Amino acid sequence: MIGEELHKARKAAGMTQEQLAFEAHVDRTYISMLENNKKSPTLDLLFRLCDALGTSPSRLVARVEKRRTSHA
Q: Most CB within 10 Å of its CB: which of 6, 7, 21, 54?
């Protein structure tokens, strides 16, 4: 579920996967895998992604938690 929220946050920030990857110091294909829920970010990477996106990790995780509880 974090992938969908990362995708939304990236789009809201007006960034491409390549731009986000550059800012977070990862490969663009890794961003794609994260957004497609093929991989999960480490805590360190989550902080780097959120810094690049201009949001807080707690806000992103709260959105994931809200989606998760609404589907339960």
A: 6
First to last CA, the chain: 13
Write out the two tokens for 67.
Answer: 């989606």
37 contacts 2 by C-beta, under 8 angstroms: yes
Look up the pTM and report it: 0.90
Please name the residue that has the structure tokens 């800012």. Answer: 23
Domains of the chain, each with CATH number or no CATH? 2-70 (1.10.260.40)
